[in-house]
Amino acid sequence: MKALKRLVLMLQFFTRIPINIQITANSSDFGKGLVFAPFVGLVIGAVLTIAAYGLLFIFPRVMVSALVLVLYIAITGGLHLDGLGDTFDGIFSNRPKERILEIMRDSRVGTNAVLAVASVLLLDFTALTQINEEYFLRIILLMPMAGRAGSLVGAAVSGYARLGEGLGKSFIDFCGKKELIWGLIIYSVISLLTFDLKLWIILLLPPLAALLTVKYFSSKVGGATGDILGAVCELNQCIFLVAACGILF
Prior knowledge:
Elements: H1 2-14, H2 27-33, H3 37-55, H4 61-76, H5 79-91, H6 97-105, H7 111-130, H8 136-156, H9 169-174, H10 177-192, H11 197-221, H12 226-248
Helix pairs in contact: 1-2, 3-4, 3-8, 4-7, 5-6, 5-7, 5-12, 7-12, 8-10, 8-11, 8-12, 11-12
Subcellular location: Cell membrane
Pathway: Cofactor biosynthesis; adenosylcobalamin biosynthesis; adenosylcobalamin from cob(II)yrinate a,c-diamide: step 7/7
Keywords: Cell membrane, Cobalamin biosynthesis, Magnesium, Membrane, Transferase, Transmembrane, Transmembrane helix
């Protein structure tokens, strides 16, 4: 029952899919629930794939690619894109650690945030339009899973960067090696079910990319935050799509 509760909790937190179930949860449920992050990504991908399949009967693939990304933002509420923007505003401000963390918490959007979000969405869109038509729907299905594997890895290998409370503290404090191992098992099983060597190669990249990315960000602020986990998710998803474009064009 705990596992099911945490799965539902993750779906409620990371998506806007209407799941009207009241759940009593504590901080550990959020952190330990990250084990289901790849599966949550697969659920998001399934919604996007069904929508894309239907839209292909009406629009050319370029327009469908754009609509898929708009739907992705709607389903996720732009949660991780917000983290991407905040992270880039802070990390690339060239300020001391304490000031970087203050900037990341500021609700105002700076130039670095706009450039980061625009660049990632541009790369996502271009990659989707150039991927071989045979793989188009499968890549849409898998891309959110690849991204959310990044949040899992990032939380499991990091300490919390702030002294007080924050949105990411529960995830980082309670997501450990056990959650990382089981989460990557879920990720691997879903990957293997694609039965495609090229996709296996591409899906190997996100966990490694997440490790390197979160280590870089952590070196700037002495750990990770919720914004950094969001940034790693979006960057991971983008890396997955760019790699898919390079291999499957």
